[in-house]
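As promised in the previous annual report, we have extended the structural survey to additional targets. Below is the entry for BPL/LPL catalytic domain-containing protein.
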Amino acid sequence: MHDLPARLPGAQRNLLLKHLPEPRMLCTMRSVKLLPGTAFFTGRRSFAAGVSKEAEPLKKLVYISQSNDVFTNLALEDWLYKQGDFKNSRALLLWRNSPCVVVGRHQNPWVEANADFCAEKRIPIARRNSGGGTVYHDLGNLNCTFFTSRDEYDRKANLEMIRTAVWDTYGLDLVVNKRDDIEWRGQKVSGTAAKLGRDVAYHHCTVLVHSDRSMLQKALRTGGVKGGYESKATISVPAKTACLREAEPSARVSDVMNAIGRVFLQNPIEDKHGNTVPSEAGGYQLLNPSDYWFPGLGSTRRDLASWDWVYGKTPNFSFSRTYSLPKAHNAGNNPQEHGIASVTVTLHVTNGMVTETEIKENDSFSQTGGSDLMHISALKGQRFTEHLLDAAVQRTVSAAMNAYPRGSSGNHRAFSPGPRLTQRSLIMESERNHDPMDREYVNSILTCA
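The corresponding structure token record, generated without further manual editing, is:
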């Protein structure tokens, strides 16, 4: 009796039974037929069909994810990596995501991604398990993950397959550079990263087919560490990018997907000594990444989408900014004693949480000035964001300005609260704190001499 999922409609079950050889099993509702000897993973069952292990050639399978959710696809990739047995098989997972930013395992998302822009456009930021730099994904980009045993890991061979597939389809002469990026006329069309385990390894890469490069440029920060960050986190190397459609207007993701899958299945496999290994193509397999087929995948997805993973796994770092703040009022109503002080604030961050605040007064603050910085000191134990520090400084500024006698003609007009403190933010902050500070006074404070 054929062991098919009970959830399949009767007509579809009959159609699949007609085309599948014995023995057989399906991984999704739209799987193609399997060849004898095919080894693959359903989540609930794993099997090898009809060929003894001793005589079994190396099996090759192409998996295509039916999800466009970045966290689901990263969870699927992780599931295959942990559950798959690739001693006698090789697999290629092809997947696409809706717009998102994906940082490397050892990167700082606040450095790599434009968090404000991503939040405005509802672009999720994800952290993958592999190293390497930050990438932008959308439906115009194809992701390829090559699964092998650790001993047979060969990223250059994988990149050569992609290069060959594009040449065969569009006649475009791509080049694999020394960094294992794929380029067209010196512009990057594919970036690469990998995860190497004790027994299993995977190499994954992007292929920019017709991505929205304007969104890519806005969603990513380029040019290295910015805004006062100090860290040992991996920094992305900026590069000029290009899409295949810029070279070939007819380029489509579906065509590139088919071409890479075809080359993967048809190309002979060589071991690390250059000897050809007997292999057998198992065809394409559409995967429905769900707990039904892959038990535990939903839990993995939740972990990958959590703050603790995306931000909490950031390598330790510090973040510093210098502000010009009004001195505290210890001079009575004598406007000549008022002025500004340059203060550098540093937040030390571990696991995404502020663990220490450091305040350096670059010139003499008044005797009571330290107490006015209590808002900054209180950040310890909070989740880090750049705006967390800005808000604390705004509260400090608001408190200090309340201390000035109204109508004084001191040198507070030279006060510069820093690049992120604006008229609107100061007024909003004062209104939240029920501060009677008038808008004219805010304008005077924000006017630089």
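Residues 1-53, 329-336, 407-449 have pLDDT under 50 and may be disordered. Residues 320-445 form one domain. These points will be discussed at the next consortium meeting with the crystallography subgroup.
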